[in-house]
Write a structure and sequence with these properties.
Helix content is 60%, strand content 9%. The protein has 117 residues and is mostly helical. Strands 1-2 form a two-stranded parallel ribbon. It is built from five helices and two strands.
Length: 117
Amino acid sequence: MKFYLHISSEEQLSRFQDRLDDPARQWKISEADYEERKYWKEYTRAYEDALSETSTGHSPWYVIPSNNKWFRNLAISQIVVEKLVSLNLKLPKTLVDIKAIRRKYHQAVVLEKEKSK
């Protein structure tokens, strides 16, 4: 599953401000972040081209609006759950004798209790 997390230019600038104001986030920012902003339109076109060229029926891109992190997380969670449910996964068939293993487990528990006396 491929997710493209899209934020607006305004949201990016707001996040930069948060990073400047919070010393715990300052490691996330660099001068290049501001230099690259002037290429926003070009980057957007390049991402759109890349997404359309690499999205297939078997492996689609999901473009997730990500200005709000709570919405981003909800959207991705719902897509992942839907995909897992659609796979109709089943537990593998047990190939061992569970009754025999259960007896061995109970014997081990009894021995462990006797050891600790």
